[in-house]
Amino acid sequence: MDQPPSYDSLFGKIAQAKVTSDGNVDFARKSIGIVCNSVIATVLLVVSLAVPVAAIVIGGLYLNDCPKQKYIPIYLIVFGAFSIVKALSSLVDNCRARKDEGEQEESKPKSACDGIIGCFLFAWFIAGNVWVYSTYKKFSTDESSEEYCQPTLFYFSFWLITGTYIIMGLFFLLCCGCCISMLCCSAKMSSYGSPTSKYGV
Questions:
Q1: Within 10 Å of residue 201's Cβ, how many Cβ atoms?
Q2: Which residues have a Cβ under 8 Å from the Cβ of 30 and sit 6 or more positions away?
Q3: Lowest-confidence range among 78-87, 107-116, 141-150, 186-195?
Q4: What is the dihedral angle through the alpha carbons of 53, 58, 59, 63, rounded to the nearest 10 degrees?
Q5: How far from the centroid of its chain's Cα atoms is residue 182's Cα?
Q6: % of the chain at pLDDT higher than 90
Q7: Sequence-separated (6 or more) residues with CB below 8 Å from residue 131
Q8: Could you list the residue ranges that cross the membrane (predicted)?
Q9: Distance between CA atoms of 140 and 144, rounded to whole angstroms?
Q10: What DSSP letter does each residue of the chain carry, written as one string?
Q11: 14-68 pLDDT per residue, tens
Q12: CA of 197: how far to CAs of 115, 174, 190, 192, in Å?
């Protein structure tokens, strides 16, 4: 008879979530939570701090170098600062959740703060879309022109926003793939359990 999986591993925790779940929706919710609290997610979170730091640096360096749309460097600085705050807050929550999984009540105020910052970043992202995309192909690289916008500043902002849409699309496809995989895994586990029922065990 096969040994049960180790519940210290990521797969083991997901298998345990399957056993304790009330259905596929609850299983999907628990599995996503387990993956988000994993070490892999924490490492990705730390690596993702490089982008907001770069945004602050570039926005600060070229703060007065885009008279065509003066809000673009401000957008980068504010985006970078709030993204770092949110990433660090999430990192603390993830470490706390792994350290003491039984005491989730302490993280509720921090989660509310994360929600507020997340809403602000979403609204700020929309504003950045307006400022950056309305300037696309409408600015000059001549520093003496009133239509000037420093190319590095503009194209960093442009690809930061466009890259966000690309990542969102990939994440959506990944979520769809995970959901399909979990449904297939669930059906497979159910089929393994069905022969025992024939013998009344």
A1: 6
A2: 17, 20, 21
A3: 186-195
A4: 150
A5: 21
A6: 43
A7: 69, 71, 72, 75
A8: 39-62, 74-92, 112-133, 153-184
A9: 9
A10: -PPPPPTTSHHHHHHHHHHH-SSHHHHHHHHHHHHHTSHHHHHHHHHTTHHHHHHHHHHHHTTTS-TT-THHHHHHHHHHHHHHHHHHHHHHHHHHHHH-TT--GGGHHHHHHHHHHHHHHHHHHHHHHHHHHTTTT--B--TTSTTB--HHHHHHHHHHHHHHHHHHHHHHHHHHHHHHHHHHHHHHHHHHHHHHHHTT-
A11: 677 667 767 666 777 776 666 666 666 666 766 678 899 999 999 999 999 999 9
A12: 46, 35, 11, 10
pLDDT at residue 4 greater than cutoff 50: no
Output the six-digit token pair for 97: 């959740």
